[in-house]
Design brief:
This protein has about 500 residues and is of the alpha+beta class. Helices cover about 45% and strands about 10% of the residues. Helix 7 runs antiparallel to helix 8, helix 7 packs across helix 10 and helix 15 runs antiparallel to helix 20. The radius of gyration is 23 Å and the shape is globular.
Amino acid sequence: MQTGMHTDTERCVRAVRSKDARFDGWFFTAVLTTGIYCRPSCPAVPPKPGNMTFHPSAAACQQAGFRACKRCRPDTSPGSPEWNVRADLTARAMRLIADGVVDREGVPGLAARLGYSTRQVERQLLAELGAGPLALARAQRAQTARLLIETTPLPMADIAFAAGFASIRTFNDTVREVYALSPSELRTRVPKARPADTTAVGTTAAGTLLLRLPFRAPLNPDNLFGHLAATAVPGVEEWREGAYRRTLRLPYGHGIVALTPNPDHIACRLTLGAPRDLTVAISRCRRLLDLDADPVAVDDQLRADPLLAPLVDKAPGRRVPRTVDEAEFAVRAVLGQQVSTAAARTHAARLVAAHGEPVDDPGGGLTHLFPSTGALAAVDPETLAMPRTRRTTFTTLVAHLADGSVNLGVECDWAETRARLLALPGFGPWTADVIAMRALGDPDAFLPTDLGIRRAAGGLGLPSTPAALTARASAWRPWRAYAVQYLWATDSHPINFLPV
């Protein structure tokens, strides 16, 4: 079991006294004299150290009887970076809970996906986070409910259903317990208060929300949005009026999201067919943009290498562009083997037009969801305009994804999944590692055979052969995927699909 930052009392007190927003989401401060809990950067006067206790999660604070601060809204802090860095049971469970698995499948479903007993999962989460899976999911439901209450005109009964509550009574009791206000009182407070920068800030047409997604500064949007725009598949993704837009396949329906970078947040315009997909959609958008990363920790580690330091200092805060659909990205990685970025987009666009599910996007250019693995598994291989060997790689991958023998979900074990991918025909280290980096979310995935990386390394005076570069990169661990972003940025062709 790992020990969280909340156990280091002295460090937590320093963070609270300095109102250091970098630690929002790392831990939460419960104030004994007021019965409330806050994020470290709460603008209120810090309490005396003797009146503070520290907890690893909002759910743990709620379990201990504390209610959320109305001023700093601690439940809307950026997620803990720990769950992006770690691949153990707790981290995998937290990623699944954020993806709404407990609400859809219950704790037994969560445990089954993780390959452990319900009792083992509950015991591990309680020991490390101070709350079990039900309490953690309940805290997430409460946050979704508050967001909908404050920013939409939806009736309370619809909000309760959309947030995942089983009954109106449970919804009312939870909101009152967490926020010390009834749902109707929460709604009436909104015009009198300035919206926090971590909440939704309005609604437009029916089913559309405008949200502000927080992140830890600094964030360099150029590589993040530039990569997404450069590799966008027509019909599924587009860059329009300063926003990256794409379709989303969600548990209860589909959605369309537009993400726009701003200095202190990402503006998110989200249209959902089913309101109860809200929590999952937000979680996947945050994951796509790597918004829960700790850029200070990453950049400090990479800056220790004198050859990387100038790159970090020039444009700090690079993120790893990820995905909203792991299986989709794996398919696209195979389509892009040994071809240019433009050719990869063309191959993917043909699949989308032929096998994707149509969607309506008034005023936009989005036309389809990316084809499901089931639909792709039924494709006649002879209709695929690609070399026979890559055709075999494609059909084998989608067959394994469709039958579940290869799982790329947020709960998967990174090392085990990478090994399974490498066992498939046509999968070399580059393909497996780019999937590990962008689909699985492994922050230490590395691409020493990538042509752009090798060119960038040679230009900086780093070793350019894969073995020597891998040896040098050991000092960058566990952030080698971020080093890839800095190295790619130095090359005139930053996106390379040539190796296998």
